[in-house]
Amino acid sequence: MKSATKTRTSLQERSIAFFWFLACAIALMLVSASMAKAETATEQGSSETQTVAPQDSASNDPYGINKKPKVSEGIGVDDHIGQFVSGDQSFNDHNNNRVRFGHFFDGDQPVMLSFNYSNCPKLCSVQLQNMTSCLREVDFEIGKDFQLVSVSIDPNEQTSRSRDTREKFMGQYNRPDSESGWHFLTGDRDDIVSLADECGFRYKYVREQKLFSHPPVFILLSPKGKIVRYIHGLNYDPVTMRRALIESAEGKIGSPINQLAYGLGCFVFDETTGKYTMQAMTIMRIGGGLTAGLLVLCLAPYWFFSSRSKSKAGAADSSKEPVAVPQQL
User: Fold this and answer.
1) How many domains does the chain have?
2) Domain interval for residue 36
3) What is the CATH number of the domain that holds 163?
4) Burial of 307: CB neighbours in 10 Å, binned 0-12, 13-18, 19+
5) pLDDT tens column, 47-104
6) Is 309 exposed, middle or buried (0-12, 13-18, 19+ CB in 10 A)?
7) Which of 39, 226, 301, 314 has the smallest count of CB within 10 Å of its CB?
8) Hey, what's the torsion of the CAs at 310, 316, 319, 322, to 10 degrees?
């Protein structure tokens, strides 16, 4: 009777272990399928964003219809990612105090830099206004998590004019305690040109139109002054800006999840789209780690119940009375 009960208990334990293993195996299959789907989507996105090599401009545009106007010739951005800005240049802040640009590299917060000027007919205002609207949708805050610095490329701009521009966009941002992070600087031509050259920012003054021609770009610098990322154009995506700030801060801002994502290299910047995408290799590594963890989780109950059954069986065998062997006469 006792033997039958023990056998029934052993079968129940093995059944529980089997169904647990089956459930974990199904969960593992679902995770693997989702990871494979994400990887396929990443590969398809990468293939779709591949650009075709440009052909001869003369053959495609024989009449020069798409040719850049003279006002745009010679301006642009040279990629200096990975290089450090010296910070030796000096400027005047909104209170007309002389500040060294390297003062903003405190080793803790990244710096978002732009080159603008207050008397710009349209481009600078649109650029700063769109970025301000974008940053309102980002959970990181100016002054608390990063610094925003705008350097005027007009050496004749007065401090009072720069102060008015600063107050305008601070009002649009409309977040308390952010004043310490807004910096609109003016300075001499030599310092402006020096900083622009170190950042790869090319601009020029057009005498005929009495304006500065320049590209719209934000430059993200690390807390130690390293150029990390260029954000081009006039349309800004809050998700992209958030990840760019995490990257430029070297994972020092945001939640531990942000730090983990930065440390694992989960996101990579795609220059063709101007956005961050999931990195396929990182997905495979995470998937491999999850697979190993799930396998251990699946097998642990089976090992436990098996060892328990064996120990019970051994104890039962040792408790049995030895059978008496008849002696021969």
Assistant:
1) 2
2) 2-47+283-307
3) 3.40.30.10
4) exposed
5) 343 334 444 544 565 544 455 556 567 899 999 999 999 999 999 999 999 999 999 9
6) middle
7) 314
8) -100
